[in-house]
Structure formats: C-alpha cells, structure tokens
Amino acid sequence: MFTLRFNLLISGLISTYALLLGHSVKVKMPLDSNTVPTTYKAHIYLTSSELLQNQFRELAKLHPNYSSLVLPPNNRKTPPPAPLKKRFKIVHIGDSHIQNDILSDAIRQQFQQHFGNAGCGFLFPYGLAKSYGPRGISARTTGIWIDYKTMTPSLDRGLGITGYGLTSYTPNASIHLNFSDKFKAIPYQRIRVWHSLDSTSFDIGARSVVLESSGDLVSQDLPLIYSDAVNRTPARSWGQSTFAYLNKGSIQSLSFEFTRNNAAQTHIDFYGFQLESANNSGVEYQSYGVVGSQFTHFIRNAGYSLQQLQYLQPNIIIFSFGTNEAYNGNLIAAEYYITVHKFLDSLQLALPNTAIVLANCQDTRSNGKIPPKQKEVNYVLREIANQRGFAYFDLNSAMGGWNSIYHWQQLGLTLKDRVHFTGAGYALQGKIIASALLEEYNQSTPLPIDIDALDNEIDSFATLLRLKFPIKDGTYPSEINSPNWIDTSSTPDKPKTSTTHQTNKPTPKGVNPKPTYYKDVVHTVKSGESLYRIALRYNVTVDAIVKKNHLRNPKAIKPGQKLLIPRR
Description:
Distance between the termini: 31 Å
CATH architecture of the domain at 521-565: Roll
Strand content: 15-25%
Oligomer: single chain
CATH superfamily of the domain at 521-565: LysM domain
CATH class of the domain at 521-565: Alpha Beta
Number of strands: 20
Number of helices: 16
Shape: globular
Structural class: alpha+beta
Radius of gyration: 25 Å
C-alpha cells in the first residue's frame, strides 16, 4: 500500500510539472508478470530507444564484415574489403563511480575489442584538483594554480564536460604530465588542449618526451597546427589548440607551457587534453566524473558542456548520476525532475541524432545509512527517460535491487564505506552494462558479435550474488526487496541468511520465482522491445510467440501491437 501511494504521489507531481513544461506524460505503473531467465541476462534491464538502435546500426559499419555485406559479391580472388573508416564516439558522464574510470573502462574494452580502439578522448589531471586519476598519469605544475569543479561554491566561471578546471594568473605557468606503464598508450597523431582562448588568455605551447625503440629519450617541441575559439564571452571563453604529435615512440611526458606575450594577457583556464589516436577507425570512449557531484551540479556549473558536446558530436551519451542525490535529504523530486528535464531538452535540441542513455544509481549504504532519496531519484530518472524516449538502464535492479549492496560486500566487491566498489566490483558493473548494450546492438543490426564469453563471466558472478531471480520488469526500481528478499526494516552488516530462498519461507507478496501461465497472456509491445526480449520476460521461446501470433516477419513488430504469449 505504501509503494502504491508513493508511486501515485510522485507520478502526480511529475505529471503536473511535465504538463507545465508542455510535455506529454506516460507514467508506468508496476506490472504483474515476472521474468525468470535460466541464466542472468543484463539486457532485460535495458529499455532501448529508436535513437540508440539507429546509432548501433552506425556502429555496425565498423564490423569486419560490413563491407562484404553491403557490397556486391566479389567472385575474383582478391582480399575482402576492409571495414569502413569511421570513429564512433561514446561519452560517459557521472560522479565518483565514473571518475575512477574502472566501470567505464570495462565498457570501453568490450566495445573496442569488437569494433576497434580509437582512444579514450579528453582527459583531465584530477590530481591537480586534489582528486584522483586518470590511471597511469601523474601531474605537477609551475606557477600558482587555482582548481575548480562543478561543486565549487559560488563558481564564477564556466566548466566543461570534464567537470574540473584549473586557472593560473602566473605568466609562464606550466603543467607537466608523466605517463607510467599503467596508462594504456596507443599510437597518437595529434594532441588537443581545451583552454581559454581570447585576447586576455596566455599563449600555449606543448613539448613531449618519448621513449624510442632504440631506448633513447627524445624531447621535442610540438608544432601548433591551429587554434579554434569555440565560445567568446566578455568574461571568459574557451577553445581548443591542436598540436602535431610527430614522435613514434612511447610517450613518457607531456608539458603545456602558457606564456604572456602582451600586457592584455592576464590568465589561462585549462579544461583538459586529448591524445588523439592515429587510428581513425574504431570506438572512442570518453568518461568524465566528479567525486561527490549530483546531476544538478553538472547542469548548473558545467556551462560549456553543451558546446563541448556539440563540438565532439558523440553518437551516444551515457549519464550515470544518482548516488549523491540519494543521500541529499533536502532534495525535492519535482524540482530535480524539472532541472534534469530542461537540460535534456536543450541537449536533445543541440544533438538531435545522439542517443541518450540514463543509468540509475547503484544500491549503497553509506556507513550503514539508508539513502533516503534513492527511490525518488531513480524513479525520476526512469520517468524522464520514458517520457522523452531515451534509453534507460536500471543498474540498481541489475545488481540485485534494494539491500543488494550487502551481497556485493560479502564477495569483497565493495569498499568499507558501502558506497564505492573495489576495482573488481566496478569492472563487473561495467561488464553488466556492456553486455546489455552489446546485446541491444545484436538485436538492432544484421551483423551480431559474439558476447557469450562476457555473458558467461557475468553469469558466474550472478550465481554468487544470487541474481537469478531478477526484479519484476516494469516495477519501480528498488520498490521490492533484493532477489533474496532481505528485511528492509533494518540494515545489517551482512545479509540475513534466514531470508535466503528457503523452502519453509513464504514467497514475498507479488514475487513468484517460478511463474506459470495457465492461460495466454496479452502483451503490448513497447518502444525498443524485440521478440527476444519479450520471450525472455515470459520465459518462452521466440518461435512459440511467432507461431502463436502467425507472424510472417518476426522483426517487424511495432509499439502498441498486441501479442499473445502462449501458456506453458
């Protein structure tokens, strides 16, 4: 009863504000059916979108067999045509779970394994802002520098998608970066720097040190190719400078030097740099996070983000926020909805063909505290995705739902604070997200890839984490207990063994671990659904649905179409 009242209350508030903003409202309420696959399938937690499927069709152009598929058969004994040269860009923005680049790197590795490595995009030396990362990069400066981030109070300057910035008023200040073996280096052809670029900004130069195959360290000034002022305002501006990277060896260090050449030059703002891959074909996966940040911090204080995203022209943008909002007791769901909704309106207008994916927050218990706003935040994110037709990944349910953090802790996948995860924990979450996205790719294109090894690896963890009985599809994330139905009235340090799938315990209300359909069920096809996904949901075969509905073309189902699900 509480869950129903909560849903009605939040749905009513969101509906009212959505109507005020001029948007139609489609509120999903809990469904009655369950889905129990024999193996763990991350894809059932992904609600797809038309734009995401379109972008995956673009990604298919990087498949090794794409050219042979679209070109006429070649009967001559000549090598098969190579895949098209294309750079597919994914940008992942979030909080501390993303800043450490372990979760996002796990996704990056899966995509680049199948479609080619075009690099990791722009980077920021977080250590200079009293934070951590990227891995394998250490940094130092000369001159006096002031660091900023999206959470800085009374921020008086714009920040970009990295969420961090550095400012120096010292003439001839510099930034020096050292790269260790932990940095995943690939061949580079250019170095791009995002910085303030106007008549009041210092000039920029770049120098690199590389280790050549002969074992010699070679230092070289990098020639400036061009500078491009993207934004000009009376107070601050930003742009990018591109340098040619001429060395063929392994990069050891990189220096940016900012010089004052006239009296009007008073400062430099630094927003990040990119080592642009020499490989023009493949997936470029960029990730940016700010420790402790909320979605609203990014929206309000990363003022250059829309322009920088337009500059990058990504194919897919993933937003992973919610953890810090969940602990914000002062958060008002309706206000949060309005702020996020308006920003995504602007983003969609700026990048109409880019697929946007909203991922909700993981289950956490910061030092034993229950996050008071976790349900509301995840609900708002899901409703925005539903109303705007964005893709949505329910990471909270995918990891087990409410109180699942304790199972992850038992397996050594979380840190002691029960908010952050170990490297293995983040990597597993990244693989879960990658599996869901790549399965959607497989269902969207005629050129599937083999992800069985990835799914088998995830499935072995799913068994240990007791994820074989996922939360009901369509329910509000974290409404019902985790797959083990732990008592949510308390927060034990470890899961209660007395509540784990025992035969003498009644099945919780509304949850049926072994659903049986004694009569045909009518299913209404939703946007982004496939027969494969529908079959998984009802634990029947695709062939059974095809035969029951006399479908001539199983791939031609449409949103709103009614399908009979055969009884078993």
